[in-house]
Amino acid sequence: MGVRSRTVGTLPWEIARKQAADWTQVLILKGPFSAIAGPEGDTWVYPWANPALATAGTGDVLAGLTGGLLAQGMAPAEAAKLAVWAHARAAERVVTRNRWRTLLASDLLPRIPRVLNEVPGERSRRRRS
Q1: Are 55 and 35 contained in the same domain?
Q2: 14 three-class SS
Q3: Bridge partner residues of 35 (DSSP)
Q4: What single-letter DSSP state applies at residue 129?
């Protein structure tokens, strides 16, 4: 990509938007306020930061969750938005329940299905697939 990490850190939404357009793909730029950008220039930002997600492997969990939603037939932008939300929500629950300031990526795994089951329409949509 050729962009310095400092630049990505200061202009995440602009970088996400540009790269999504250049690559003609939906892109998730994970960070304190994760950005999802579509190839047409649409950009969504998850507005709540969770420092507990700044740990090794949590991005892999987000990527796997996104891939799983795509494999179930979700549109790329919708899969990305739902994955970012569910990933953050699962982390919030781990931190709140365990009263930890941090977590391991594996701590997210049992929480994600529970979070997804709370999304209206998700449970029945997954069963039909």
Answers
A1: no
A2: helix
A3: 29, 45
A4: -
